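Lecture notes, unit on binding sites. The following record was shown on slide 14. It pairs a sequence with cytidine-5'-monophosphate.
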Amino acid sequence: MALNPLTTRDHDVIDLPFLDAVSSFAKKLSHGDDYLVVSHHDADGVTACAIMVDLLRSLGKKVDYKVLKQLDSITISEIKDFTGKILVFTDMGSGHFTLLADHGVTDFFVVDHHNPECESPKQINPHSFGFNGGIDVSGSGMAYLVARALGRIDFAHLAIVGACGDMQDSGGKLRSINRMIMFDAIEQGTLKVKNDLRLFGRQSRSLVQMLAYASDPVLPHLTGNKRGCTQFLELNEIPVRDENNRLRNYVDLNHLERERLTTALYIHLLDANTPEFVIQRMIGEVYTLMREEKKTELRDAKEFATLLNACGRQEQPEIGVMVCLGDRGEYLALARSLLENHRRQLSAGLDYLSKKGVESKENLYFFDAEGEVKESIVGVVAGMAYGARIIPPDKPVLGFAQDRDDPDWLKVSARANYSLLRKGIHLGNAMNEGSSKFGGEGGGHDIAAGARVPKNKKEDFIKEVNNIFTTQVSN
Ligand code: C5P
Ligand code: C5P
Ligand code: ZN
C-alpha cells in the first residue's frame, strides 16, 4: 500500500470576513492589563489555554488561568474570586451567555467553537461565519487565530494537537480552518504531515503494543492478543526488535516495512469482513511535532493530545498547560504518570462496560457507570466503546456517572458518529434541551456533548432525549 508524502498547501479557503472579524476581536481583547484565562479540561481546552496565556504574556499582560471540567452554575463559583480581571473563556463560553449574565459576570471575552447561544461582540465563534466548529476548527485553533492576528504565531502546532484531541482529524485529514493552521505550522517548521498508518502510539509504543491496544479500528485477533501480534509481525518479516535487541516502534520502520505492515493489516481486516470505510480510517494524515524528541508521546499530535487529556481529566490540567508552555522536566514527568493512571482507568471503564453491556431505547443506548467510572472520563469511555464496537454504531449513546460535586446529580456524556449526524442527530442540542427541562444544564457539539441532570429525573431524562432524537431524525 503506497503511503504518499504531503507537500503542498493544497487548500486555502478561509474567507477574509472571518479573518477580519478575528483581527478586530483580537485588538479589542488586547486592550486590558490583567486577565484570567478560563478553559475546558480536555486536550483542546488545555492547548487553547496555553496558547492564550502565551499570547497575553507575550503582550506584557498579567495573566492567571483556571481550567474547569465545564462551565455551569456550580463551577462558575470557582472564578468569582478573580474580581477586577478580564475573563477570557477559551474552548467554552459560547453556550453560557445567559449563565454568565445570571451570575453578574460582565467583563469577559469568549474564544470558542461550540454552538453559540447568541451573537455578541464579546465573542469570536466560527459558526457565526458559516463554519462548523465540530470539524472545521477547534477551541485551540480559535485561540491560535486570535494570537496570529496579534502577531504571535509560535503555537500553531499546539492548535493541531487540540484539533486532534477533539477528533477533528477523524475523517483522515484536517480540513478548512484547521488545514490553514496546519500549513502555518508546517511553514514554521514545527509540524510535518504525511499520509501513513494512523494507529495510536506510532511514536511511543512498541509495535506489539501499538497493534495489541488498537481500538480505532479494532484489529480482529490482534487487539488484546500480544502473542498474536508478535506472530503477525514475524509472518510479515517485520522484526519486533532492532540489532541491539531493543523493541522497535512504528516510527523505527523503514518505508518498505511500513508499506508491508499497512498492506498486511488492510488484507487482515478485509479477511475479517471489516467494512471498507472502517479500514480506510486506518490510513490518513499523521501529524509529527518536529521540535519534540523522537519516540516520545509529544512527537505525535494524537499522542500529545492523549497526554493532555490525561492531565485534564485526572483533574490536574495545570500540569498539561505547563507542558504546552514548554516544560520538559518535572511537569512532563508528572503528566506521564497521570497518563498511566488515565490508561488504567479507561481500560477498567471499558472492561466494566463490556461486562455490563448497554441498555437500549428506540433511539438511543445508555449505560449506568455511577460509582464505577468517573464523570470526567465517562465520555471518553463511551467514545472508545464505539470505536471498539462494544456499543453498536446505529444509535447515539448516553453514559451516566456520579456528578463530582453533588450526590443528587448525575453527569451524562453523549457520543454519536458521522452517519448518525447525517440522519439529523445533534447531541449538543439534545443535551441542552433535555437537561433544561429537568432543571439541569448541558450542551456541546453535534457529535459529542454532555449535561448535568438531577438523579431522580434520570428515567424521565432518557425518555425525553429519546423523543428529541425521534424528532431530530424525522425532520
Ligand atoms: O469542549 P470540547 O469541544 O473540547 O470537547 C469535545 C470533546 O468531545 C473532546 O473531549 C473530544 O475528545 C470529544 N469528541 C469525541 N468524539 C468525537 C469528537 C469529539 O469523543 N467524534
Ligand atoms: O465531558 P464530555 O467529554 O462528555 O463533554 C463533551 C462535550 O460536551 C464537551 O464539548 C463539553 O464542553 C460539553 N459539555 C457541556 N456541558 C456539560 C458537559 C459537557 O457543554 N454539562
Ligand atoms: Zn474543543
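Take-home: The pocket of cytidine-5'-monophosphate (ligand 1) is lined by residues 40, 42, 44-45, 91, 139, 165-167, 170, 383, 415, 445, 447-448 (CB under 6 Å).
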